[in-house]
Amino acid sequence: MPRVLLDARAKVNITFDILGKRPDGYHELLMIMQTIALCDRISVESSTGDGMIRVASDLPYLPADESNIAFKAAALFFKKTGIENDGVFVRLNKKIPVAAGLAGGSADAAAVLRGLNCLYRAGLSKEELQKLGSGVGSDVPFCIAGGTALATGRGEVVKPLPPMPQCPVVLVKPPFSLSTAKVYQNVVCENIRIHPDTEGAVRAIREKSLAGVARRMYNVLEDATGSRLIGEIKAELLDAGAEGAVMSGSGPSVFGLFSNVCRAETAYARLKKQYRDTFLTKISNDGDSL
Q: Which residue is catalytic, options 139, 173, 234, 288?
């Protein structure tokens, strides 16, 4: 049976800003999103012969039914393309922490869409896949594109930026998860007093200035988490030599950008002793790759 293997890469937010509340109830966002090398490994197999969509994972607590975003992506692919489903089996080998602000589920969904597009020779362009992905989740269009991008709207409007300067990344997921919905519920737009200098960060990216990017890393959702530990991890990363550190998405993962590998390795070893889910990774300019 035909099968493709894909790397579904995590994303981090260099900046994360909320501009206000939209008429549809969502928040209007402005953020710089970046792919990192940390990834799930996705297998998409077609022609299983049963006409069903099946999803399996190496995490026993992860839903494998219609509530799984990878399942939703496959169902939407067949619905929108009109291609007959002759049976699809998706296997998720999870490395990206779940419910961590790293778009792990969205990356998996993006990989499924790209895999099905390849297996069934649907011929959908990247832009068409992104439009399809926006119907599954706000981060899916970015995960299809990957690299460095400015995202607006709910996060689904993605404008490519020049590649970020290559650098090591140390990422820490604290020993708890956060509900994205609850974090957003804690946001009062009128009370946001500090906003990231996203324009300056874009300029620094264009100038290939890691220091310039690092100085402007900021996430307005950090205060809405109500967690002191997030601030403590940021301080530990900076104390260990990070050029800049910030929470990713709605959290609780925190990451730091480093100017050299030795400092990053030392920081990783130090933080790994305290936090089990600590990763030494790097900036990646690829999205979900076959």
A: 139
